[in-house]
Every structure is written in C-alpha cells, then in structure tokens.
C-alpha cells in the first residue's frame, strides 16, 4: 500500500490515489484498453482498499540480501504484485473458483466483496447475496424452496414451482465459511458449483457463467464439517490472507474518522460492465501458450502421480492405485525403492493432480500473462501461478527422506514455498530429459497427422522406431518422466499395432 501523503510515490502507486479526505482522485489512464483498465483496478485496490504490502508474485532477476541468521530477502528487477489482490482479480476475469483462507478479520470476505463491486454489482445486492455458511444451513437455505400453494395443489412434481434464491444468478458468488456447511448441503453446492446447475422437485436452476469466491478460516479444511473431497477438487486457486502490517495503522484511523470504507469509494472508472468482462475473458484466452512453456508444465505435473512401488504392472505404477487399495506413498516409499529421494519429485507427494488442475494452470497462466501485458505465456508465469492452483490439491508425504534434509523440513509449513521449490527442481531437471521428450513428441506428431493412406510397410517401419526408443528407455532408470514417456510410447505402439492388424484383415 502506497503512502498517499507522499506525492513522489504517485508513479509507483498506479493511476489512482486517495486524498486525506479519502475521496478518490484518478489520473488519466494510459490508453483506453481493457488491459489498462484492469491494471488500474488492481492498483486502486492495492493502494487504497486492501492494506497489503506483501508483494509475493515476483518477476525478473533478483538481488538476495541475507542476514547473519541466514534469512533471505530478495529484491526483484521487474514489477511485483500482491497475490491477495491479483489472484481474486484473475478469478473474476476468468470465471473460475477461488478459496480464500486465513484467520478471522484478515479481509477475505471484504476482498471478495470488492471483486463483486468492480464487476458492476450494487453494494446492497452484494451484501444480500453472500451465502453465510453455518451448521444449520439446509438445501432450501442454499437453493430455495417450493411455493407452499403449489405444494398443496400440485398433483405432479412438475407442477410445483420452486422459488430459487436470487444469489444463484449473480455474476459473482460469495460463499462465506464454506467449511461450516453440513455435508448434505455441500453436495448440493457441489452440483451448483461444479456442474453449473441444481435440481429440486424436477425443477432446475442454472448458475450461468460466474466467478466464485469461497472463504474458510484456515487452510487445513477445518470447521464444523469436513469438506467433501469432490468439492475441494472444484476449487481452482487458493488465496492466502496476510496479517496486517502495523506501519499502516494510520490508514485504519482515517477510515474511522471519515466513517467510510473503501467499498464506498470505488471510482466508476474501474467498474466493469458485463460486455467488458466478457471481452477480457476472450482476450485472456487469446494469449498464446508456446510449446516450450507447455512442455515444462507437463514435465512438472506429469511426474507427480508416479509411484514405482504402487504395482508390479507397468501401467498401474501410480498413486491412484495406492489410494484405491487404501495405501499411502509414505508406507511404500522406503529404501526398497532405488530412486534418489533428494532428486525425484514423486517421493514428496501423496497424490498427483487431475486433468482439471492442468487446465486451471493453463488458464490462470494466460490470465497472469495478459495482466502483465504479455502476449505469450512464459515459464515465469507458470512458476508464479502453479503453487496457488495446487495449494489444496497436493498432499505432502511428510515422511519422505527429502524433508529430512537440512532446510527442507520447513517446506512442510508453507505449501506455496514447497510447490514452487518442486517446480524449480523440475525446471533444473528438464534439460536432461528434453531430448527424449522431443523424440516422443516427434513420433506422436507423425501419428496425429493421420493414418489415411499409410500402407503396411510404412506402419511397420514407424512401429519399429517406437519399439527401438522404448528399448532404449527401458535400459535407463525408471523415473517419473521416463515412466510417462514409456506410457506415451506404448500407446503410440498400440495404435500402430491395431492399425496394422486392421490392414492385414481388410487388405489381405
């Protein structure tokens, strides 16, 4: 948060500032693009609404400063951003689902309300539409109820008209303390949030295209009720609230003396209408995802699900096999597995990630690149966004030998730092695996070009190349990346084998 009393900081505080009377003063925006308006909204919220001096999404080279105790502070060359402000904004413009976690009074709900207000919702509408989680929340409280007169007169369920809750149709949906909602009601919320509709008495209601903001008072899934796993899996990104920095106590005093809150002072210039929100969503999707960045993301995420000890059958050497059998990685990841626990990522997690998580990483990376004014996603965008997407999806294997090494045990206390460290480890390993991955990709591209017109001799020759690469890889250590490549190669081999058998039967 910039000190509004120092005019020298205006350049760094964006294009919006507040005077001593807390009235908003806007300078001329650079251009009239939606991208410029999006950035203006970010800077206004950062400097005037959310008191958050924690700039933890960082880019560029850094200068590391270390004290005598070994604590390190990094100063980055490029612009840095606050995750507590930026991630909710990216969620708003991508129509995704964010979970905001942290202790009471940290500003989770207030931040979600700000997102609703800049989306064009009226303040009174926002306040009335917040769904408050509590142990007595019923499905009727969540969705609505049938009209009593219809219940008495109807002879069939189709004649019963349901009075649906108005919050369901809003562009921004806020669910406060979702972990205090009873399990049965959570299931109804899952249908609405995950599938986009809910059903009652053979009547259906649709959520429409919307952004979801859920809050919880801790990041361990605590609360009155355990959150069902399927509901947690529908959450796209986690936003961690941060503690108040006492240096900004004067800002709290001003709010008391003026009897105004930031949500009362939002300038009209940073409020988006429905057409603008849709347009930004399209521009985000238009950001290019180069093969280089996509390959690196795939290399990192792909090896997390691997477990050499899960099964003797090659295809089932994954953590889902263990989970279905009631086992765990911590039980089988012992000295019996020859892989070096200091290098291989598979030892650090109890689970892998779903295809939904892959998609979420790609979508948020595009949104982050767009916000930064980039037309192409870079590896640094992925590095910054992946920890927040996987925060609630990855479970660490606390008994891994990796965490016994000096300095690694503290990673168990901070999932963002842990996941980013895994990503960095993967990027260090990627150059060694890249030549093999390129060969696999070349063989896949050849197959994806189509089999129309490919004769038996050509198919046999291609199958021979695939078989030769499989034989080469099987002579090396069976790591997570190697297992992924071999599974991929086997699928290519099987496609060609099926095709050659079809040729022999139909063109004999």
Care to describe what's here?
- The protein has 18 helices and 13 strands.
- It is 45% helix and 10% strand.
- 35% of the residues are buried.
- Mean pLDDT is 88; it is low at 1-16 and 20-31.
- It folds into three domains: 7-76, no CATH class; 83-243, P-loop containing nucleotide triphosphate hydrolases (Rossmann fold, 3-Layer(aba) Sandwich), CATH 3.40.50; 291-506, no CATH class.
- The chain has helices at 34-49, 83-94, 108-118, 123-129, 139-143, 148-153, 183-195, 229-233, 249-258, 274-286, 291-302, 319-324, 329-332, 355-371, 379-390, 415-448, 456-473, 480-506, and strands spanning 16-18, 24-26, 62-66, 72-76, 97-101, 131-132, 144-146, 162-164, 172-176, 197-200, 203-206, 211-216, 237-240.
- It is globular, with a radius of gyration of 26 Å.
- It starts with 15 loop residues before the first strand and ends with a helix.
- It is of the alpha/beta class and 508 residues long.
- The strands form five sheets. A five-stranded parallel sheet has the order 6-9-12-5-13. It has a two-stranded antiparallel sheet with strand order 1-2.
- The longest helix is centred in the C-terminal third of the chain and has 34 residues, at 415-448.
- A hairpin with a 5-residue loop joins strand 1 and strand 2.
Task: Give the N-to-C terminal Cα separation.
Answer: 76 Å
Structural class by helix and strand composition: alpha/beta
Indicate the mean pLDDT. Answer: 88
The stretches of 5 or more residues where confidence is low (pLDDT under 50) are 1-16, 20-31
Largest sheet: 5 strands, parallel
Total domain units: 3
Q: Which oligomeric form is depicted?
A: single chain
